[in-house]
Design a protein that fits this description.
- By secondary structure, the protein is of the alpha/beta class.
- The chain has one domain: Class I glutamine amidotransferase (GATase) domain (Rossmann fold, 3-Layer(aba) Sandwich), CATH 3.40.50.
- It has six helices and twelve strands.
- The termini are close together.
- Pfam families: SNO.
- Its EC number is 4.3.3.6, 3.5.1.2.
- This is Pyridoxal 5'-phosphate synthase subunit PdxT.
- Keywords: Glutamine amidotransferase, Hydrolase, Lyase, Pyridoxal phosphate.
Length: 187
Amino acid sequence: MKIGVLAFQGGIEEHIHHIEALNCSAIRVKKVLDLSEIDGLIIPGGESTTMGKFLDFSKLLEPLKTKISEGMPVWGTCAGMILLAKDIEGLEKSYLNAIDITVRRNAYGSQIDSFREEVIIPKVSNKKLPLVFIRAPFVTRLGKEVKNLCEIKNNVVAAEYKNILVTSFHPELTDNLDFHKYFLSML
C-alpha cells in the first residue's frame, strides 16, 4: 500500500512518519503524476487558502477531484478538512467540494487559542485519543449522509462520508497511531 501526503505545506513529515510506523509506504504528492502511484491520500494541515492556490498552480485540483469521486480514500486534517468541504463559511468558492459539509475556518480562534483534548471516538478506538487543535476549523453543517464521528465543545470535529475522512485536529502531532490505522482500514 502506498499512501500519498499532499506535500505543499503543513504536517507532511509527521504524517509520513506515522504511515511508515505502520509499515506502509508514503510518498510526497506534488504533481499530477504522483496521483497514479498512490492508494490513498492525506491532505495535512497548513493554510487552506495557500494550499488551494498550490492545488490550482500545480494542476492537481481537477485530477484530485476525479480520483476522490472515483473512490480513492482521502483524509483531510485541519486545512485538509477545509479543502475537502463543499462549503466554507464566508467564502463563495470551495476547493475539492468532496464532502457535504460546511466548515468555519479558525473557528476556535488564533494560534494562541490552540488546545488539546482526550476523548474516546468509538469508531476509531476504544481508548482515549489525544486531539490537538491549532487554529482549528469545525463543521457547522453536516450533509444528510455524512457521519459525525466526534464532537468537542458541541462542535463536530471529525466526520466521514464513504471514502472521505475529515478531522479538524492533528493526530500526526501525537504519538498515537490510531487515526492513521483507521484511515488505512478505509483502503
